[in-house]
Amino acid sequence: MSSQRTQSVARRQDAGGWLFPLLATLIVAVFLTLAASSPAWAQSGTADPSVTAEQPTRGQIPGNALGGTNDTEFWKMIRQGQSGTVSQPDKKLGVLVDSSGENWRAILNGPVKVYGAWLILGVLALLALFYALRGRVPVDGGFSGKTVERFTTLDRFAHWLSATSFVILAFTGLNLVYGKYFLLPLIGPSAFSWITQAGKYAHNFVAFAFMAGVIMMFLLWVRFNIPKKHDLTWLAKGGGIFDSKVHAPSERFNAGQKGVFWLACLGGLSLSMSGIALLFPFEFGFFGKTFAALNGLGLDLPAQLSPLQEQQLNQIWHSILAFVLIAVMLAHVYIGSVGMQGAFSAMGSGQVDVNWAEEHHNMWYARLVEEGRAPPSNQIHPAE
Ligand code: HEM
């Protein structure tokens, strides 16, 4: 038994005797071959001269050891939100790291929030200053006691449908942006979260009433809002807003009102489209298509947007446009109520005093008198 074990150990020692030198020779041969085929920098032990601090390997790993692309470049592409291809129908899954989300957040929490607040506060301050200096714009000739129909029931329904829904949308929208700074400390987290959630639902649904109202106003009033030459005279005279003795020419709507009309319709349309894209995320590509169309005019805008970038642009645009429209509507609400004597009844009862009609819409009123649809005023008013 013991002699058998001794023989086997001796055989293994014999084998090791020729195996070891063979392996050693092989390793040396492989090493020498590799060394001969390596570039000079590898043999000398210095760094690759093509590698710089800014561009470590020009996007390529020498030797294609781990795939052709350098990790740094590859990571940079992922980090900058480059979209890859995916077989799933949900194409946004092609973006691994959406770093544009950080830019979006910074824009929204920075300039949009700050300048939006300044815009609204600035307009309110200007209106207060205007009221302090000018007071309520009076009816120059005083009330005559005779009235004329300015807006029908249908006109007023369309207006108040858009107006009330706009006010609800504005307050619930502003609460989403600023509520946590003002309302939350005042009413506490439970009430605030309840109000904000209810407000968000209201915002989603009331938006459709706003769209319906704007479409109605557009259909009812578009023919009165085509810009005409005399609108320039109205603008040059500042609409007579600074001096009651100055009367500027106007048909049913003056140049300022035409501006409000087009802003309400076109701004309302764009606000609605971006709002719908927010309600149904990743369904639309409005920005890519708009940018592609604008590029046809010689611009160089990024038309290839990822679904997430589309969504971010929608959100920023919706906020900016909402701030602009709120600012414009504040001025509109002011002049349609406290700012001008005799104006509100146009949208209240639908009737206005004939002196008011003649002072602010002389061409429209003159036509109504001519057609026998309005009583003549007591005053001779030289607005041309
Ligand atoms: C909530 C307060 C509002 C008040 C008190 C108000 C008041 C008025 C009044 C009195 C008029 C008639 C002016 C005239 O006879 O010439 C008017 C017209 C009009 N309103 Fe309003 N409005 C309000 C909100 C809105 C909103 C939110 C919108 C749009 C979304 C809007 C859009 C219009 C348009 C397009 C006109 C016709 C053009 C013009 O007069 O500027 N209004 N409004």
UniProtKB/TrEMBL annotation:
- Cofactor(s) recorded in Swiss-Prot or TrEMBL: heme
A molecular function (GO) held by this record is:
formate dehydrogenase (quinone) activity
Return the GO cellular component terms, semicolon-separated. Answer: formate dehydrogenase complex; plasma membrane
- InterPro entries noted in UniProt: Cyt_b561_bac/Ni-Hgenase, Di-haem_cyt_TM, FDH_cytochrome_b556_subunit, Formate_DH_gsu
How would you describe this protein's topology in the membrane? Answer: Multi-pass membrane protein
Q: Which family does it belong to?
A: Belongs to the formate dehydrogenase gamma subunit family.
This one is known as Formate dehydrogenase subunit gamma
